[in-house]
């Protein structure tokens, strides 16, 4: 492990899907780390490879998937080299997942208490009574009211928000090291979404799970993530801390994503939009895959793939615009406003630190 | 919103839409709502799932027989047209764009036949050449090209399919379009494209929209006025900017406080406001009251002063 704080290290991952039309190159050389206790958000459009990435970590890819390169290191071992049997021991124990649709991810014919207890019985060999008792505790923890009476209810007797709480209870009952949440609130109403997100944050503090949070909703990302990775056409194009991505983004795709989402203050006749559609990954374009939709594209973008350029120790972006020889461009209006806000925040922070360090020094002098 | 010159195109009066009437599982999906929509505006209808917003849209286009109340389109009751001609005209004037671009297009029909179905039914085309011409123009209007007309829906992406759905709605030159969650199934970068297209068409063709959605930031962006629904009732109606800046009803406040904003600083400071719905069933008679000019709140007689005070504090009253 490069960094002892890392719990998961994905390196040079490449996944193809065999189809009649040819090989779909769904993941094209993806690397990232997940640190202990953090929430890493992966954002991108459908087809950008966010779900395939996490399904590869879980060993749950479809049978036509081929992992052609890469490694996924977890506790010093490569998950890609594990047998199906070994992965069964890891799934639901060390790494758990919450899926998007709470309506279809529960077994409609099984009582919910039993469904929550099942991971304990399977992975810990716990007896049914003991497991059910623990399931009841878990139900209370995720905020299912009147848990004692509801433990023998079936999924259809619960609302969407309550079902997602049950799904979370199942995922967390074994206190997994890593929780993968794949659009966990997309199917829910905003008020219920807010409850579920708060619950996830609360539980993360309690059991110090690391979360990989997949979503296309940048509002949710802003509230949940410590770090953000932006994916486009099977690659990570930019990653950094949540502040760096939202206030100082460098990749034109990130600019487009952030500008095309109206905030409650957006006005005007035309919403900034990203023209065109994502490329066909049967035959990915040469160079930067975003070039065709990018108004800031340079000539080199269609010829050579951009490497990651360093913005800060924690912030990297794969765009030629960051090359020292690249022409200086002005990002969209909205992004400039965000950068300005970030600069003000940083200045305020420095001032705050200065204000608070001076008295301490004075005290030391007095001593 | 310019109320001086506004002309009502749609009037919903005391609409009730119940299902399973008289049975144990009676559902009051829409429970006595009244509102007007003005010509050329976009009226946004927001609320959680189960609030009755989709049912309201469907009742307006007369997919249901209303349990009681009336819906007037250009002054005519949609439930009781005087002639078959009026009914046919209504079905041409009002069109719908659906949420799911995968389920709402017949997979066995070519795009040109999907788009032209309304043209055929209403005998709008003089001959085959005119029909083809109209279809090609429509596809161009929504940003597709005419080569697409002989393809099938599965050959298109979600955003393109939604454009086909829009072309189909426009084919019969409607005046009023109901868009029920038209962008919820699309990716963020494509949502903006479709919203821009809808706004452009509205400017060019003077369309009136009823825009139903749960994405509050997008609804605010596209709408002139907004109605907030909850448990089948309309709780608040006002101009889009005003309702977001100065919500008067507690439910609206709660709903707005839950909207995630793509700004980490804002998110860290966010306080959600919980809403206690229990007072809604205290037996008091409530109806929409105009608290500030053109700002309506569902209130009981003794709650009016409280809302007026709120409006005063927000400087909505002078």
From TrEMBL, chain A:
CDD domains: ABC_NikE_OppD_transporters. GO terms for molecular function: ATP binding; ATP hydrolysis activity. InterPro entries: AAA+_ATPase, ABC_Ni/Peptide_Import, ABC_transporter-like_ATP-bd, ABC_transporter-like_CS, Oligopep_ABC_C, P-loop_NTPase. Residues 346-367 are annotated as: Disordered. GO terms for cellular component: plasma membrane. It comes from the Bacteria. Its main location: membrane. It is a peripheral membrane protein. GO terms for biological process: peptide transport. It is found in: Cell membrane. The keyword Nucleotide-binding applies. Residues 10-258 form the ABC transporter domain. Keywords: ATP-binding, Cell membrane, Membrane, Nucleotide-binding, Transport. Belongs to the ABC transporter superfamily. This is ABC-type dipeptide oligopeptide nickel transport system, ATPase component. It comes from Levilactobacillus namurensis DSM 19117.
From TrEMBL, chain B:
It is a peripheral membrane protein. It is found in: Cell membrane. GO terms for molecular function: ATP binding; ATP hydrolysis activity. The keyword Iron does not apply. InterPro entries: AAA+_ATPase (IPR003593), ABC_transp_ATP-bind (IPR050319), ABC_transporter-like_ATP-bd (IPR003439), ABC_transporter-like_CS (IPR017871), Oligopep_ABC_C (IPR013563), P-loop_NTPase (IPR027417). Its main location: membrane. Residues 10-256 form the ABC transporter domain. GO terms for biological process: peptide transport; protein transport; transmembrane transport. Keywords: ATP-binding, Nucleotide-binding, Peptide transport, Protein transport, Transport. One of its GO terms (cellular component) is plasma membrane. Belongs to the ABC transporter superfamily. This is ABC-type oligopeptide transport system, ATPase component. It comes from Levilactobacillus namurensis DSM 19117.
